[in-house]
Amino acid sequence: MGMKDFYLSQRMDTSTPQGMIFLQMIGGFAEFERKIINERTKSGRIATARKNQYAGGGVPYGYQLLNGKVVKDEQ
Predict the structure, then answer these.
(1) I want to staple 55 with a disulfide (CB 3.0 to 4.6 A). Which of 8, 48, 70, 72 is the partner?
(2) Where does the record place the Resolvase/invertase-type recombinase catalytic domain (predicted)?
(3) 53 in helix, strand or coil?
């Protein structure tokens, strides 16, 4: 169950101080998780690029992906 499902399944009264602090805590944890995922993804792409391997994204026009490497398309 994700945070969205948890939030929707709970009766949270944000008009009370307890409801507001709980909502802020959930938001803080969600932001933290987003930043952690971003750091891991970025460091993985950098490590892949340092090994001269394709790190993802669109292949430039005139090139193709062959065995994990971007090579010029002679056609």
Answers:
(1) 48
(2) 1-52
(3) coil
